[in-house]
DNA sequence: TGGGGTTAT
DNA sequence: ATAACCC
């Protein structure tokens, strides 16, 4: 299929980036509609991680401390969002809904998805051409208000893309009650950048002629998705502060500083070029649960925390149906300097006899897992010396499908039956 | 600064 | 196992 596309005309992908508005806050407003017209923040520990637009109007910004938020906005209502279950479940409903339109859906975090709609666009373009119809109308905004040229097939493809993006957003609202933004462009980078240009619940299409305007509108290089904190700092040392600096910087020196791979990739990004494919995410590669706290300093406390984390995790794995073959323990040790970003981890294979028991009924898989995790803990920490942890995290990965021999069993069907629909009356 | 995720080395 | 990136 993709071969027929590129054979007919210059390769032009059409990518949609879908970005839900203040996602956690929206989920909470659906769970409790009384919060709908009030300023709402979602709290994790001492941080407001997201707020609705009522709260934003009153000055509550993302990742603000609860203290500052309450000062700015005393009427702010806070709900605890430390348990991600409702957000995770809603998030996958959105991805699955997009998957009904098209198989190429890639998740980015819980609230963003990329969709490669090239094939859908080609199909609609053919239908239009066969019906002799030359009238196509753009849906939503056009970046920089650029004029559309209907004789330019790239323009026409992107306009069709804007219509499909509108259908995505309408479906997400009709079926899940969620609003969001969308950006339509010829690659992932540009679709993501353009989706944020009109902000809540609107969409924007980028025409190729405006690509340089969009990428150069970024005031700092760290705004380029793919250039993170570390790379931005190193670029700063080289005197590279904005996108134009990066475009013009000698590639040879960049390659020496960052390595060929990173240098070439980010320099292409600075021109708005991004040939990375939309890679279908499929089911998750790992399941993890973590908790942060002020202090944990004894083996007994560590064991308690791990025992708190496991039931939720095992439940998620049970519902997923696959079996994990690796388990990992991650810790963060207190340090006054370098306060952030000192995590260590140890992982090991899960013994085969334990793996078998994952899918089964309430067999006690917890006790042996706690044992394994405590051994991993002792590989990192000498428990005879004082220690001070501020985070514990357990992660199951290396997920494998059940052996097919087991899949026809009665247990399998009981487990994966969806509950009866309707009231049952 | 939370509580998650991914890929590359 | 860590380091980088993303939200």
Automatic annotation (TrEMBL):
<dbReference type="InterPro" id="IPR001126">
    <property type="entry name" value="UmuC"/>
</dbReference>
<dbReference type="InterPro" id="IPR017961">
    <property type="entry name" value="DNA_pol_Y-fam_little_finger"/>
</dbReference>
<comment type="similarity">
    <text>Belongs to the DNA polymerase type-Y family.</text>
</comment>
<dbReference type="Pfam" id="PF11799">
    <property type="entry name" value="IMS_C"/>
</dbReference>
<dbReference type="GO" id="GO:0003684">
    <property type="term" value="F:damaged DNA binding"/>
</dbReference>
<dbReference type="InterPro" id="IPR053848">
    <property type="entry name" value="IMS_HHH_1"/>
</dbReference>
<dbReference type="InterPro" id="IPR043128">
    <property type="entry name" value="Rev_trsase/Diguanyl_cyclase"/>
</dbReference>
<dbReference type="GO" id="GO:0003887">
    <property type="term" value="F:DNA-directed DNA polymerase activity"/>
</dbReference>
<dbReference type="GO" id="GO:0006281">
    <property type="term" value="P:DNA repair"/>
</dbReference>
<dbReference type="InterPro" id="IPR036775">
    <property type="entry name" value="DNA_pol_Y-fam_lit_finger_sf"/>
</dbReference>
<protein>
    <submittedName>
        <fullName>POLI polymerase</fullName>
    </submittedName>
</protein>
<dbReference type="Pfam" id="PF00817">
    <property type="entry name" value="IMS"/>
</dbReference>
<dbReference type="InterPro" id="IPR043502">
    <property type="entry name" value="DNA/RNA_pol_sf"/>
</dbReference>
<dbReference type="Pfam" id="PF21999">
    <property type="entry name" value="IMS_HHH_1"/>
</dbReference>
<keyword id="KW-0237">DNA synthesis</keyword>
<feature type="region of interest" description="Disordered">
    <location>
        <begin position="271"/>
        <end position="291"/>
    </location>
</feature>
<feature type="domain" description="UmuC">
    <location>
        <begin position="15"/>
        <end position="228"/>
    </location>
</feature>
<dbReference type="GO" id="GO:0019985">
    <property type="term" value="P:translesion synthesis"/>
</dbReference>
